[in-house]
Amino acid sequence: MRKVVIKLLFVLAALIPLAGVYVLNNASLVTEWFTDTGGIKQGEMIPLVSGEEVDGGQVDMKQYKGKKFIAMIAKIDCESCKSSYPTIKKWNELYPDIPLVMVGVGGKEEYSRVKHELQFSFPILSADQAMQEQFLMKITPVFYAVDEEGRVIERMNGYRVRDFKKFMEKVEMI
To answer: Which intervals hold domain Thioredoxin (predicted)?
Structure first.
């Protein structure tokens, strides 16, 4: 009996670090197992909303129907969102044929300032309460790859450079 317990302890001692490495390398996936992250699920239709762009004027997401595009859900005070800005700016410049639209929660003036400081060329929709409810927003950032019909074909919660690169590789192949 004692030998069995010792063997079991050795097996557990080996599995615990492996589980830790898995969690560290797949943090967003593990988080999704235990929490309701809200948002639009893969395979569902994204709300093709229209609203006010942070620089004035209107943006209608229906204009993207018929082509694939990326929708980013962000919040002005979200540090992960902010850390994604250089990457999404670069990606948007490299792949202008796959439009990007940001749906931003927070001060319209702050987003306008960020847009000008970072020289974003994509629209930023100012998300009012109704729009937040349509997107079932709970966490930020969330990136959606949307197909020509408006269906979410890929979803990424949070932001890590490595995960974003994988996400975009999938988008390019679609």
So the answer is: 40-174
